[in-house]
From TrEMBL:
Major enzyme class: transferase
Documented EC number(s): 2.7.7.65
CDD domains recorded: GGDEF
Organism of provenance: Colwellia psychrerythraea (Vibrio psychroerythus)
Keywords: Coiled coil, Kinase, Membrane, Serine/threonine-protein kinase, Signal, Transferase, Transmembrane, Transmembrane helix
Leader sequence segment: 1-29
Protein name (Swiss-Prot/TrEMBL): diguanylate cyclase
Location of the GGDEF domain: 508-636
Length: 636
């Protein structure tokens, strides 16, 4: 019995081996078929998702169960396409998970793939749409690093566009324009119509934020043309929507309504819920604000928008809906309901001080509407208190604009005075010209005509000279410190900001020196402010002599200077600072009762600073350290 069992087992093994060999051959053939089919289907999906997201998703997910038989690169392509479709459907949480899966698989690669860059961008966009701006920024930077390492021009442009969008979302419009214009120039060197459309769209948005409506509209129209050429119907509709919003901003409400109607007519089952929400809410706002305001129609369109709100993950849409609802209900006289909508906004914006300026501006507007509601309800005490809060919020909204200082306000006052002087001179010029023309027409005597002409020509020349002098004084007032002849704080911060943005974009070194004259107050008190002014001027001259061509130097405050050193590492910056300290320490001062003047210097080099102010603060912290450790020192 034992021998029979053993024999039967051996025979079974042979049979099983044959079966497994056959199955492996079939599996190998199936794998080959799957790979070939996958490559074919993905090309179809790339085209199909431009117009039909649902069908493209259906075709792509037929490979969901055979991913293990595909290569790593093909897996990355699968998850990239899936994340793009999910983002097109406004499923941002799902897109984030999909991108995560793809990026985890990508870790198996020996060298980076451009698909990794695209997946990082997609994950970043999901974070951005879900309101996590810091995480989105991190993902975009990582994606850009991969694209730059592979020298992929198109994906470099996409990364710049993504970071440009983050910049305007965080109120950094200057950096946004730099990044987006770089992307726009790169896109112009390619045949990629989608990339050109996206670059134009984002430039349109940033110019809209800057209230440059004509430029904004031009970019939107160009983006629409590029998307149509690329066959991207959904993206082209997005451009039309931006055009409608631009009409709304310019108060061309009838034109906006016409574009919105086109979008409603051309929408289909595949149109994302976010898009339909913004179209109907846009229609509501246009009907409310147009000359023959129709609050009833506005409310009907807002109710049409509401079902789409339930399927969106964007907090901004929630805010927009309740803002529109509160304004429309106020117009309809439904004040208690309007207050309920305002309360919902206040819940969402509970930490409004930490939000971008555009959202804080919206918070001020809704608080102002609340005051109006109380007034209509004859709750005058509450109306007064709320209006007072509006004034306080408005002051806070603008108190830090352009990093204003007392010096900045002084310069603006001087500029205003110069502008008024220019207006007076221009008015005189106009009167002289009128007198000249009148004299020319009415004079019968050539001699009188020549005399008047000569006098008026002299007067006209005098006015022109005064205008030129006034403009020159204005330029000096805006840019130059009167005592030292160096750049004033306004000019210094402007030049440093430019250097900071270039360093961030090009990933180069940038260092700042904060230089403070030791014991200047004691010198002023002991031997006079005129001596103190002479010392300030001389220190500025010594520092200027040590500058390179591309460095920026100027007076930061009464006794403090700042030097901005592009393309300079911490080591070189410390050496420069030491040269300045030693030069001032060794200088022979020609003032009585004064043998030596010293300075303390703080040094900081750009690392992960998000803005110039952060870098300046770090340099000042080092300056305080130098002073605390005995002065006449360099700390960095």
């Amino acid at each position: 019995m034992f021998c029979l069992t053993k024999r039967m087992s051996h025979t079974g093994q042979v049979v099983l081996s044959g079966i497994f060999f056959f199955l492996s051959m079939v599996a190998h053939a199936q794998e080959t078929i799957d790979i070939k089919q996958f490559n074919l289907v993905t090309e179809q999906v790339k085209e199909l998702k431009k117009t039909d997201l649902a069908l493209s998703l259906k075709q792509l997910t037929t490979f969901e169960n055979v991913l293990s038989s595909l290569t790593v690169e093909q897996n990355l392509l699968y998850f990239k396409l899936l994340a793009e479709i999910q983002i097109g459907q406004n499923k941002y949480s799902a897109a984030k998970k999909t991108a995560n899966k793809g990026l985890n698989i990508g870790k198996r690669l020996a060298s980076p793939s451009i698909l990794m860059s695209e997946l990082l961008y997609l994950r970043g966009f999901a974070f951005e749409s879900l309101g996590d701006i810091p995480r989105a920024t991190k993902e975009y930077k990582s994606g850009l690093e991969v694209a730059e390492s592979l020298h992929d021009k198109i994906q470099i442009a996409v990364g710049l566009i993504n970071l440009g969008a983050i910049a305007y979302l965080t109120d950094n419009y200057k950096r946004s324009l730099i990044l987006l214009n770089d992307a726009y120039n790169i896109a112009g060197q390619t045949d990629d119509e989608e990339l050109k459309g996206t670059a134009n769209t984002e430039l349109g948005i940033v110019y809209a934020h800057l209230r440059q409506d004509e430029q904004s509209m031009a970019y939107y129209q160009q983006s629409y043309t590029h998307f149509k050429k690329a066959g991207l119907l959904l993206a082209a509709h997005n451009s039309l929507h931006n055009i409608a919003i631009s009409h709304t901003r310019k108060k061309n409400y009838d034109q906006a309504i016409s574009v919105f109607k086109t979008l409603i007519t051309e929408s289909n089952k595949d149109t994302p819920s976010d898009s339909m929400f913004t179209v109907y809410s846009g229609m509501a706002w246009a009907h409310l604000k147009k000359a023959d305001s129709n609050p009833d129609a506005a409310y009907e369109y807002l109710l049409m928008a509401k079902p789409y709100l339930q399927s969106t993950e964007k907090n901004d849409h929630q805010l927009g809906f309740y803002f529109d609802e509160a304004n429309i209900l106020y117009k309809l006289g439904r004040f208690d309901e309007a207050l309920n909508s305002i309360a919902r906004i206040e819940e969402i914006l509970v930490n409004h001080q930490d939000m971008p300026r555009r959202k804080r501006r919206g918070y001020v507007n809704i608080t102002n509407l609340k005051a109006k509601v109380f007034y209509k309800q004859e709750k005058f005490q509450q109306a007064y208190e709320t209006k007072s809060r509006v004034l306080s919020l408005t002051d806070k909204l603008y108190e830090n604009e352009d990093n204003r200082s007392i010096e900045q306000v002084r310069l603006e006052l001087e500029a205003e005075q110069a502008d008024k002087k220019n207006e007076i001179l221009n008015s005189q010029k106009a009167r002289y010209e009128a007198s000249f023309n009148k004299a020319k027409l009415e004079s019968d005597e050539q001699k009188i005509y020549l005399i008047i002409s000569a006098l008026l020509a002299l007067a006209f020349a005098w006015v022109l000279v005064k205008l030129i002098q006034s403009q020159h004084k204005l330029k000096i007032a805006l840019n130059v410190d009167k005592l030292t002849g160096t750049a004033n704080r306004h000019r210094l911060m402007l030049k440093s900001q430019q250097a900071f943005e270039v360093a961030k974009v090009k990933q180069t070194h940038l260092s700042l020196l904060m230089i403070d004259i030791d014991h200047l107050k004691d010198i002023n008190d002991r031997i006079g402010h005129s001596i103190g002014d002479g010392i300030i001027a001389k220190v500025a001259l010594i520092c200027t002599d040590m500058m390179r061509k591309n460095d920026s130097f100027g007076r930061f405050s009464s006794e403090e200077f700042m030097m901005c050193l592009p393309k300079t590492s911490l080591k070189l910056a410390m050496e420069t600072a030491e040269c300045i300290r030693a030069g001032i320490n060794d200088h022979l001062w020609q003032f009585n009762h004064l043998e030596k003047v010293t300075v303390s210097v703080g040094v900081a080099t750009l690392t992960d600073d998000n803005d110039l102010i952060s870098l300046v603060k770090r340099a000042e912290e080092q300056l305080y350290q130098a002073k605390a450790s005995g002065r006449n020192k360099v700390c960095g």
